[in-house]
Amino acid sequence: MRSSRSSAEGASNGALRAFKSARDTTSIEPFDDVREPGAGEQTAATPRVNGGNNAISGDANAAEDAQRNAAHDSTRDSTLDTAHEPLSPDDPLAPLPFNPYKGNRGLTRAWHAMKNSLAGFRVAIREESAFRQELTLAAILIPCGLVVPVDPVSRVLLLGSVLLVLIVELLNSSVEAAIDRISLERHELSRRAKDLGSAAVMVALGMCLMTWGVIVGPLVVGWIRAWL
């Protein structure tokens, strides 16, 4: 009697263990990784020997792809850094530094510009002897150009040639002042810049002389002949 009971209990225990193992097996999803920890890393780290040449070539291709992607990422990052890099002060596209003297607008700007222009005339008259001489010549020629009997276009040419001499002389004086502001020592480039400005003044004087000689010269010759 006791042996039959023990055999029945053993059979029931065996059926229970079989049911539990079956339930555990069915609870595992098809895509669950049931390998032991570290097995995947070891397999990925060591090349498969049984796969032959195909496995080794596949690993080599994967390594090349990884290197190519890394190089592409580094190139893209460097390109982005270059694109967002601030412009240097020597770059012509760089923004100009803030000038507090450029903040005036409208009539205020015109008023300050007129005051600065008059200050420039005062400085040129006081400091530049060449400008004083040319201004004296202009004081004689401009009234003559206004009263001489010529057509309006010729009159504009006469007056414009005189004013052109004054304009070029002012520019030459500004160049000389800028060079002296940089340095007062003798330098080949400083001498060249001043000589070029002086040459520009000489060209303007030659143009003024030619204009007056072509337009007013025949009139003066006719007046002399009529007087004699």
Walk me through what this model shows.
With 228 residues, the chain is mainly alpha-helical. It has a domain at 114-227: Orthogonal Bundle (Helix Hairpins), CATH 1.10.287. 76% of the residues lie in helices and 0% in strands. The chain has eight helices and no strands. It is elongated and about 115 Å long. The N and C termini lie far apart (174 Å). Mean pLDDT is 75; it is low at 1-8, 24-34 and 36-52.
Question: What is the gist of this entry?
Answer:
This protein is mainly alpha-helical and 228 residues long.
Key features?
single chain, mainly alpha, cell inner membrane, DAGK_sf
CATH class call of one domain: Mainly Alpha
CA radius of gyration is 49 Å
End-to-end Cα distance, whole Å, is 174 Å
Q: How would you state the average pLDDT, rounded?
A: 75
Secondary structure elements and their pairing?
Elements: H1 2-26, H2 39-45, H3 53-83, H4 106-127, H5 129-147, H6 152-182, H7 188-215, H8 217-227
Helix pairs in contact: 5-6, 6-7
Biased composition (Polar residues): 1-10
Transmembrane segments: 196-224
Catalytic activity: a 1,2-diacyl-sn-glycerol + ATP = a 1,2-diacyl-sn-glycero-3-phosphate + ADP + H(+)
